[in-house]
Design a protein that fits this description.
Blueprint lengths: L4 E3 L26 H7 L2 E7 L9 H18 L3 E5 L6 H13 L4 E5 L1 H4 L7 H12 L3 E5 L5 H10 L5 E4 L4 H13 L3 E4 L10 H9 L4 E2 L9 H9 L6 H16 L2
Parallel strand pairs: 1-2, 2-3, 3-4, 4-5, 5-6, 6-7, 7-8
The site of zinc ion (ZN) has 5 residues, from loops.
């Protein structure tokens, strides 16, 4: 069986500034051949925000990456579903950014990567105000996860059951168990499989057995990680049925993004 694949978690780039691949000088990669790289792997659509590693001095630096996401959306057409960044240190600017992005038809906020943008608390009143605005625009929020964010993420979800939140990176055993507990508690919480995790045998089987097959999304974290690795971890997993693979690869994302 062949599968159509949507990569829900990527960070496309226009140039060197936002290409965060560690081995990029060995990869023959540019914004011009990103599409071909994915197409050769069977990925027909990618989603996600533009990120940069440089220190953010003001909201202007955030907006610059968001502008780049819009330019890439223009360049790539239907291939790319852009995501954008907000910053709880700049609530007003973030709210107008949400409205600006919404006017461009953008439906995805994130992946937000707080440590790269100079903030850390998902449970703050400031981030809450931003989530309320995102809810008004029916936007999906993709969030970087790591151990130190876990408690705040749980607290945030308690007061925002109306926002679809996709946590990124299953992580190692304790982190993965936290994701599963969260998915059991919050129907609006999804998990994308990018980053650490899928290399642990049985992780996807356990996720499906414990929380069902509808809230797990395929993601790679390209260009940080190699999409081929993640495709293999689903496609070649003998513990998954074809219909489960189909849901992870594209059907769940299609439903979520309404495409
Ligand atoms: Zn990422």
């Amino acid at each position: 069986m062949t599968f159509e694949i949507i990569d829900f978690h990527t960070h496309p780039f226009l140039d060197e500034r936002t290409n965060i691949a560690a081995h990029k000088s060995f990869c023959n990669m540019s914004c011009d051949n990103t599409k071909e790289i994915f197409k050769s792997l069977g990925v027909f659509k990618i989603c996600g925000s533009v990120i940069s590693l440089s220190k953010k001095e003001s909201f202007e630096d955030i907006r610059k990456n968001n502008d780049e996401a819009l330019s890439l959306a223009e360049l790539y057409g239907a291939f790319y579903i852009p995501g954008f960044h907000v910053h709880p240190g700049c609530v007003e600017e973030s709210i107008s950014e949400i409205r600006r992005m919404s006017s461009h038809g953008v439906k995805l906020c994130g992946e937000l990567v707080p440590y790269l943008d100079g903030w850390e608390d998902y449970s703050s009143e400031e981030f809450s105000a931003i989530l309320r605005e995102l809810a008004k625009h029916n936007m999906i929020v993709s969030l970087h996860s790591m151990e130190s964010y876990d408690d705040a993420m749980d607290e945030m979800l308690l007061s925002h059951r109306d926002v679809i939140v996709v946590g990124a990176h299953p992580g190692e055993y304790p982190d993965f168990i936290r994701h599963i507990e969260r998915m059991k508690k919050f129907e609006n919480y999804y998990l994308d499989i990018s980053g650490l995790g899928p290399h642990r045998y049985g992780m996807l089987r356990r996720a499906i057995d414990e929380v069902g097959e509808d809230r797990i999304l395929f993601g790679s974290d390209f260009p940080t990680c190699s999409p081929a690795t993640f495709i293999g971890s689903v496609l070649l997993d003998p513990l998954l049925s074809d219909s489960e693979k189909e849901k992870i690869f594209s059907l769940n994302a299609r439903k979520l993004l309404n495409i």
